[in-house]
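From: lab user (bench 3)
To: helpdesk
Subject: output format question, protein + flavin-adenine dinucleotide

Hello, I'm new to running complex predictions and I'm not sure whether the block I got back is the full result or only part of it. Here's what I submitted:
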Amino acid sequence: MTIDKRPDFLIIGAGIVGLTIALELHNQFPDTKIAIIEKEMQPGMHSSGRNSGVLHAGFYYTADSLKARLCRDGNFAWRHYCEENNLTLNHCGKLVVARNEEELNGLDELARRAEVNNVELKMISAAESAEIEPQAYTYERALWSPTTATVNPKEVVNSVLNKIMSKGISILNDTAYIKRSGDEVITSNGKFAPGYLINTAGLYADKVAVDFGFSKNYKILPFKGLYLYANDTGLKLKTNVYPVPDLRNPFLGVHFTVTAENKTKIGPTAIPAFWRENYTGWNKFNLEELVDIVGIDASLFLANNFGFRKLAFKEMQKYSKKKLVQLAGTLLNSINQNDFKKWGEPGIRAQLINVKTKELEMDFKYEGDDKSFHVLNAVSPAFTCALPFSELLVSEIKEKLNG
Ligand SMILES: Cc1cc2nc3c(=O)[nH]c(=O)nc-3n(C[C@H](O)[C@H](O)[C@H](O)COP(=O)(O)OP(=O)(O)OC[C@H]3O[C@@H](n4cnc5c(N)ncnc54)[C@H](O)[C@@H]3O)c2cc1C
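Helpdesk reply: Thanks, we reran it on our side. This is the complete output you should expect:
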């Protein structure tokens, strides 16, 4: 393929956000040249292909957040997309169960958020919860989300990729952004001179943004999500079973997911990772990142703003299969350790932290001007939100371009 090194729009990173932005740009600017560069050999090798595949319903987020509206609309949009394109879609729903008296307040708060966000969610009794999933342990009450569903994230990414290619958008794999040089961009595949640059580089989005004068107060802090699968003959749940989350941090607590293919898995964890692509062992070890991340983790540990100390201690224990099964088991009436032997492919969350306030950013974050645009905090549920999120981002880009 001949590579046009002067596209109107150059997107860095072919995760679900970069891919859906490309589609939306093509819709809005059909006569422009759009190119995506991706450092891996194919799209979706990081968060977008390694997530839980849950189409969240949108009841976790406060009404003033982008996540609230985009999640509700994104859930609907992907369900429709999957049906239209014959992709695997499991309408399995979700139970959020209280395990003790204290957690009932958390259920009430989620129910309030669902109402304000206009998301379908039902408060149910322990008996009703047992009818939906007899193995779930419910103290007095639970929440039932009928619109939560699961997809196969890799299948979704490939479907969007095929659409993109059919529209003549160029995808250049094995092409890493290296640095900016004036109006040009240096990559591992030569120089590009884009009309406008869009950074959707996931775990590296902050690094790219800094080259363009953005992300001054932010850094990405990686958190590792491990998964543990039930044996084929082991535990089989009918629905996703989640705990009441600690709403001070963006993670949902260890839970059970029923995959699009009807397998049951525990996870993901939110274990502080030591470098950005610290998936397994010493793979992709990066000393500079290690030093930087340990420094941030140490300052969070001291400040303890959002209960980081407890979170870090609790999460580190989850490297042990036994401990992870035991913790997840508190969501069920009983659990058999022997059902869980196989780790799944881990994912890493590209969580943005404000280095000045030492707080994790809870909502999506982006910055830009008339030359470049940077998506800095496309954390969960950005997969669910991707279609309406990309519409919003392209309208923001349009505004920047029109001055
Ligand atoms: C464990 C886990 C579970 C999750 N579960 C869910 C869920 O159930 N539901 C949900 O809605 N969301 C979930 N999420 C969140 C969701 O996966 C992400 O929000 C979403 O995938 C982010 O997409 P992205 O395109 O921004 O990032 P990515 O998919 O990470 O894409 C970024 C791309 O940029 C490329 N890149 C990076 N640097 C460069 C460079 N220098 N040059 C060129 N390319 C570069 C990368 O290779 C990558 O392909 C989960 C995330 C994790 C980690």
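A quick orientation on your result: The longest strand covers residues 218-225. Let us know if anything else is unclear.
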